[in-house]
Amino acid sequence: MVERCIEAGATAMTRDKINNILVRGRPADVDELLLLAYVFDVAPAHLLAPGRDASVAITPNTVVHDGVAVERWVRGEQALPGSDASHYYAESYERLAESDPDNAVMQYARMKTIEQARQFAIRFNAAARQQMSTTIETLATIRAMVDNGQSSDDIVARIDAAVVNMRAPASTTTGEA
Q1: Fewest beta carbons within 10 Å, which of 61, 89, 133, 158?
Q2: Residue pLDDT tens, the chain, 177 long
Q3: d(CA 109, CA 85)
Q4: SS (H, E, C) the chain
Q5: Cα separation of 34 and 44, whole Å?
Q6: Most distant CA pair in the chain: distance in Å?
Q7: CB atoms < 10 A from the CB of 21, how many?
């Protein structure tokens, strides 16, 4: 391996330096990482994300336990959990669009679809909670009507009114147009 480094023009990369990086775990700088990837005939991303089951410390407080996710992150294909996916994919799109426009567009569209699905779920859950609250109030009102001896016609009218409200478009229950 030292010979390949020398052939590549990296005469300062000694056997001891290589051992310190590969065996003893000394962090490699970017130049060393690129040189080792070249010498090993692998993509630099493979050295940054060593294996499917590897855990990688991105920061002292951020450890990713999925080596494949880290590799995809390094290649610009996937945002890491907890990161700003919108910014990540927008930046990735800018860089990938020239070499692989279909993949960049697909990832950006995927992120936007996920974002829209989350917003839809939030609105749906709010509407469902509101409907549940209204239903509970209606049932309590009907129960009170029964307890107070109101006529069956009054109770049926109240039930019919509740059914009409439940069938109303979601926009009237969520306050959206």
Answers
A1: 61
A2: 888 888 888 888 888 888 888 888 888 889 988 988 898 888 888 788 767 788 888 888 888 888 888 888 887 788 888 888 888 877 777 776 666 666 667 777 788 888 888 899 999 999 899 889 989 999 999 999 999 999 999 999 999 988 888 887 655 444 444
A3: 12
A4: CHHHHHHCCCCCCCHHHHHHHHCCCCCCCHHHHHHHHHHHCCCHHHHHCCCCCCCEEEECCEEECCHHHHHHHHCCCCCCCCCCHHHHHHHHHHHHCCCCHHHHHHHHHHHHHHHHHHHHHHHHHHHHHHHHHHHHHHHHHHHHHHHCCCCHHHHHHHHHHHHHHHCCCHHHHHCCC
A5: 6
A6: 99
A7: 18
